[in-house]
Structures are given as structure tokens and as C-alpha cells.
Amino acid sequence: MKRATYILPVLVVILFVIGSSVYTVDERQKVLVLQFGKVKAVNESPGLAFKIPFIQNVVKYDGRILSLDTQALEITPLDDRRLVVDAFARWRISDLVRFRRAVGTGGTALAERRLDRILNASIRQILGSVTSGTILSADRVALMNQIRDAARKEAASLGVEVIDVRIKRADLPSQNLDATFARMRAERQRKAADEIARGNEAAQKLRAQADRTVIETTSEARKEADIIRGQADAKRNAIFAKAYGQDPEFFAFYRSLSAYEAALKADNTTMVISPSSEFFNYLKSASPK
């Protein structure tokens, strides 16, 4: 009974020691074995592993490729046209010992903050050396590769490998967008005013041409009318002359009637003329035989 009383605590202690000396490594993880804060071993093989209990402890890190979105960054390219750039990077821990020495107990959170500063510096350096047109063009893979290579060199001191960098967005700042839209609006209005002015000029030319055509057509019509009227008058006079030659008395009578018709109108009936004038020859009564 007394022996069983001693054996049970011993078994508990042994199980606790064994449990403290065994740890597992997930296939997605990398593990550092530390002894009094110093790195004693690196374990990247998945499965069970052992350490010295109470003296050594295990720190686990994510061994997968991680993603980091940078903060929106305002840059100034060569043409001084400011842009707001968003980018993201793919990275992973390549040297676990160097990573531990660089970030200490800060882990991946501290590594991401330092990597974000490295990426921002690389983005400013590379994109600041080209024009905004190059940045905004569809073919900017070379720029992203340059940013990746520059960041990779700086991040090597952290024990980190930058796998890829991509630009998500490169836009004008909101105040610049308003100014750009205003310039575009002014440009469109200027073009519209030019088109209106050209249209008015063309309309005036057409109107002047039309007026000239009207005047020329009217003049030509008057000319033809005068010619026709002259020909008609000549023909009429010829007919009158022929009729006068055939019967002079009837012609004189006809001319007198026409003169009476023109002279004796309702609004012009006052005449001062001698009664013995030839004008009244055909109004006098015939003398009785």
C-alpha cells in the first residue's frame, strides 16, 4: 500500500517530463528550439520531436508563403504628377535563425512592419525614377520585378525572402482627380466652342452663298423677264402698227378709249382742259344732218 502511494506520484512526474520533452511539428510550420533564449536547433521536418524539458522551449513560425498588403503610398514620378499606389507582396521565412535574431520575440507581426517599410522605400525609389505614363501603362511587369528585387536584397537581413510584388492600384489623388476632371471638362468645352465657331462660320458661308445665288437668280430672271417683256412690247407695237395701217380711224378711236379709261377714274375726275381739245373728239355728239 505504501509502495503504491509512492509509485503513483512518480508515474505522474515521469509522464509530465515525457510530455514536456515531446513536441509536434506541423507540415505548415518551422520550429526553433531555444535554450535560455539561444537557438539550439532548427526543425522543419513534420512529425514528433524531442527537446530537453524545462531547459529548452519551442517557438513555432508559419512556414508557408505569406501575404502582405502595403498601405496606400503617395509617390511623385519624374513628371511630378503625383500618384497613390497600393501594392501587395508574397513572402516567407527563409532563414529561421536570422529571422529570430532580427525580430526577436516580435514574430511575424514585427517582421511585417519592417517589411512594409522596406517595400515602401523600394516603391518610392523605383516608381520615382520613371514617368507616370509608364506606371499607369498596362505593361509594368518590369517595374514590379525591380521593386521585388530591391526589396529582396533589403529583406535578406531579416531572414525573409520576398517572392513577388504586385501593384494593385495606381491612381491620381482625389484632389488631383478633381483638377484633372476640371481640365478635361475645360478641354471638351474649348473643343465644343471651336466646333460651334466652325459651324457658325460654315453657316455664314452657306448663307452668303445662298444670298448670292438668290441675287444672281433674281437678276437673271429680271433680265429674262425684261427681254421677254421687250419682245412682247415690240410684237404688240408691231400688231398695233399693222392694225393702224389697215384702219387708222379705228386705231385712233381705240387709243382715245384707252386714254378716257386712264383719265376718267373715280379718284381723278377733275380735268382742266379746253372743250375743243382733240381729247374730246370721240365724246362729242355727231352734228345732225
Structural class: alpha+beta
The overall strand count is 9
**How many distinct domains?**
3
Q: What share of the residues lie within helices?
A: 40-55%
Give structural notes.
This protein folds into three domains: 2-62, no CATH class; 66-172, Tetrahydropterin Synthase, Chain A, CATH 3.30.479; 183-254. The protein has 289 residues and is an alpha+beta fold. The strands form three sheets. Strands 6, 7, 8 and 9 form a four-stranded antiparallel β-sheet that branches. It has helices at 2-21, 96-103, 107-127, 132-136, 141-155, 174-246, 248-263; strands spanning 22-25, 29-35, 38-43, 47-50, 56-62, 66-69, 73-75, 83-93, 160-171. Helices cover 55% and strands 20% of the residues. A hairpin with a 7-residue loop joins strand 7 and strand 8 (83-93). It is built from seven helices and nine strands. Helix 2 (96-103) packs across helix 3 and helix 3 (107-127) crosses helix 5.
Short description, anyone?
The chain is built from 7 helices and 9 strands; from the N terminus they run H-E-E-E-E-E-E-E-E-H-H-H-H-E-H-H.
Give descriptors for this structure:
alpha+beta; 289 residues; single chain; three-stranded antiparallel β-sheet; Tetrahydropterin Synthase, Chain A; four-stranded antiparallel β-sheet; 55% helix; 3 domains
Question: How are the secondary structure elements laid out?
Answer:
Blueprint: H1 2-21, E1 22-25, E2 29-35, E3 38-43, E4 47-50, E5 56-62, E6 66-69, E7 73-75, E8 83-93, H2 96-103, H3 107-127, H4 132-136, H5 141-155, E9 160-171, H6 174-246, H7 248-263
Antiparallel strand pairs: 1-4, 2-3, 2-5, 6-8, 7-8, 8-9
Helix pairs in contact: 2-3, 3-5, 6-7
